Amino acid sequence: MSDLQSLVSELHGAVERKQFEAANDLLSRSKRALLMQNALIPTSSTPPQLVVLARQVLELGALASIRQTDAQLFTRYYQQLQPFYDLERHAGLPGQSSSEVDFSTSQRSKITGLYLLLLLSMGDSANFHTVLEGLVEEASLKGGRVEDDACIKYPVELERNLMEGSYDKVWRETKSERVPSEDFGLFSNVLVGTIRNEIAGCSEKAYPSLPISNAKNLLFLDSEGAVINFAKERGWILRDGRIYFPVEPEATARSERDILVASGTVIENALGYARELETIV
């Protein structure tokens, strides 16, 4: 047990220092040690202290994978952690007997919030709501709300703003002090990329053209040069300082009013943010 504790301590230091080569080696050694003690999946016979160490190893593995931008590996760690988090989930429910396992060092809230943010950035709404519904039910049984947890509230608020088409609010949230930790910020580029493509798709349907200067703020890009590169990637036409969107065959039969009704809310929210930026500048 003491050898495993030393490994976990070294692993924690390597992950915090972002020494990922060392961290990955320590993760392999730690998981082998846990496997030898049949502790990678907790059972009723697993010593409580060993349960805690196993959970810490998997949580550190999850954080290391996030910091190495390996979403698939993070997802596997999240799944491996669920039996440990089930213990924590059940321990706090009314009528359940107290557990000898120490949950004070658990990073369940952070890992779950990161997983929700990952699902959101991937556009996986179905799994996002499946996980969220479980959290809502658990919080209700414990007499609380999911919004009471900052790590869960953050992706929930982002998802709500996305569903409303309030992309300006999403952008602000990803750049604000309300981001729970640096690890959550690592998903910002992916999420903003998702938003940018959504706005681009709506813009193509809502307008025949836009000035490049407006598109810069509308698409949350840093320069007009970045707008030009993005426009070329999407096959937009650039002429006389404007972007001209390709006209889809079925769109020609629709009136401009119908098109604006279909996607006006999204564009107006984003353009409002663009105008606000222009007044600041």
Instruction: Name the strands of the widest sheet in spatial order.
Output: 1-3-2
Globally, the shape reads elongated
Count helical runs.
Answer: 13
Low-confidence stretches: 252-263, 273-281
Q: Mean pLDDT score, rounded?
A: 85
- Quote the distance from N terminus to C terminus: 60 Å
Summarize the helices and strands and which ones pair or pack.
Layout: H1 2-16, H2 20-36, H3 48-67, H4 71-91, H5 108-121, H6 125-141, H7 150-164, H8 167-174, H9 182-185, H10 188-206, E1 209-211, H11 212-218, H12 224-234, E2 237-239, E3 242-244, H13 256-280
Antiparallel strand pairs: 1-3, 2-3
Helix pairs in contact: 1-2, 1-3, 2-3, 3-4, 4-5, 5-6, 5-7, 7-8, 8-10, 10-13, 11-12, 11-13
Describe, in plain words, how this protein is organized in 3D.
Residues 79-261 form the PCI domain. InterPro entries: 26S_Psome_Rpn12 (IPR006746), CSN8_PSD8_EIF3K (IPR033464), PCI_dom (IPR000717). It is a single chain. With 281 residues, this protein is mainly α. The chain is built from 13 helices and three strands. Helix content is 69%, strand content 3%. It has a three-stranded antiparallel sheet. Strand 2 (237-239) and strand 3 (242-244) form a beta hairpin.
